[in-house]
Amino acid sequence: MRNLDIKNFPIANKKIEEFRKCNVKNITELEFKENSFKDVTNFDFDYLKIEDFNTIFFANEKIKEQNLVDNITLEENTIIINKECKNPIVVLNYYDDENTIFEKDLKYIVNKNSDITIFEIFISNSKKNFINQKRDFDINDSSNVEYVYLQKLSFEDFLNIKFNPIIHEDSKLKFFNFNFGASNAYNQFDINLDFLNSSFDMEALTNISKKQEIANIVSTIHNGKNTSSSVKANHILDENSHGIFEVKARVNNEANNSAVIQNSQTTLLGDDAIINANPRLEIFIDELTASHGATTGSLDEDILYYLQSRGLSKKQASKMMLEAIEYRILDKITNEKIRNIIKEI
Fold it and tell me: What is the Cα–Cα distance from 240 to 23, expressed in whole angstroms?
């Protein structure tokens, strides 16, 4: 058993401004054992085995099942996607242990002229594990990647994941970010838009309750001309939950005609729920389009009243309004089968 190495968990460093709102004492005081790659026998994810989809299923960081219908190269920590790959890829990360630290990183290499959807899921049937990982993306020229990230870990697990995308010329990464589980989850993004016409676009949904804490910490640097970044997040916070939206974009001198959007919208359902939203822009040029903002409120009482006047109970009306928030994001996902899986989960 061992405590966390602070070098591998910088969120715990309160000297870094972006991390000051993160409450990690409940993690740093724990001890974790190394991953023993325990065999998993109760493994039932047939609902993710979709016809014509590529599937890679990890259980406690070992490959449990795989079915690759396209020309995809799978190495130990790397998935290489060729332009001939037309079918979506489902990557499942399933954890079934206790007080264990999981540190398997993964890199996606997307070759030129590719158009691909990746659906990566984090699920656990365990408690007090620490998933501390990194996802690298190398998206080569003239490629379009839609990456759907969903975490629904147990409410006693902890997650720290860092995303490092390299987006080359005329390429786009569309990132969908869904957070429903974990006691504490910290999603960090380091994005350098160095290449002409490169684009990063994120739509995030955090729906949590109890004492959960979920953070999206995003740093974007625009260096290339005609680059664009958009980071939009919706938070639905109940009971004593805590949402963090710490987003900074820097547009340097060379990044003419760039575009930057930052937006946080929060619906507070509990009196003790908290949101810390801090969108920031650092701009060093005149030729750009930029906007940022954050709004916080509760469910609209007028709409609730109207729905109840049509025969719905207050609980039914509230559920319908919250689903409308979720579906506005879900409906932007290209693949209908992936949308339906997320709705069921």
Answer: 13
Q: How far apart are CA 99 and CA 3, in angstroms?
A: 11
**CA–CA distance, 179 with 192 (Å, rounded to integer):** 24
Torsion of CA 18, 23, 25, 28, to 10 degrees: -50
Name residue 142's amino acid: S
pLDDT digits (tens, 9 = 90+) for 101-117: 999 999 999 999 999 99
Q: How confident is the model over 113-146, as pLDDT tens digits?
A: 999 999 999 999 878 999 999 999 999 999 999 9
Cβ-count burial 165-179 (b if 16+ within 10 Å, e if not)? bbbbbbbbbbbbbbb
Compute the distance between CA of residue 284 and CA of residue 200 in angstroms, rounded to an integer. 20
The single-letter code of the amino acid at 170 is D
Q: 30-44, 106-120, 261-275 — which is least confidently predicted?
A: 30-44
pTM: 0.96
- Tell me which residue has tokens 């994001």: 329
Q: How far apart are CA 180 and CA 266, in angstroms?
A: 15
Phi (first) and psi of residue 59, to 5 degrees? -125, 115
Q: How far is CA 53 from the centre of its chain?
A: 21
Residue 73, H or E segment: strand 72-74
Q: What is the pLDDT of residue 213?
A: 97
Amino acid making up residue 160:
N
Cα–Cα distance between 165 and 220 in angstroms, integer? 11
